[in-house]
Amino acid sequence: MRTTILNVANRLPVTIGERISKSAGGLVAALEGVSEENYALKWIGWPGAAVPDARRDEVTRTLADEYNAVPVFLSEDEAHGFYEGFSNSSVWPLLHYLPSYYRYEPQWWDDYLRVNQRFAHTVIASARAGDLVWVHDYQLMLVPAMLRERMPGLRVGFFLHTPFPSYEIFRYHPKRTELVAGMLGADQIGFHTFGYMRHFRSCVLRLLGIESEITRIHHAGHDTHLGVYPIGINAPKFEQELGSPEFRAQLESAARAHEGKRVVLSVERMDYTKGIVHRLDAIDFFLDEHAERRDRVKFVFVSVPSREGVEQYQELRDQVEARVGRLNGEYSTVHNSPIHFIHGSVNFHELCALYALADVGLITPLRDGMNLVAKEYVACQRERPGVLILSEFAGAAEELFNAVIVNPYDAKAVADAIAASLEMPEDERRARMEPMRRRVMSFDAGAWARSFIDELAASARRRRPPAHAEIAEARQQVRLALAAGGRVALFLDYDGTLREIERDPASARPNAPVHGVLDRLRARDGVDVTIISGRTPADLESFLGGYPFGLIAEHGASLRRPGHREWEHLDTNTSYAWKDELRRVLELYTDSTPGSFIEDKRTSLVWHYRKADPEFGAWKAALLAGDLAALTASEPLHIRHGRKIVEITPTHMNKGAAVRRILEERRYDLIVVAGDDQTDESMFRLDVPNLLTIHVGDGRDTRARYQLHSPAAFRRFIEDVITDPR
Question: Known catalytic residue: 444?
Answer without folding.
Answer: no
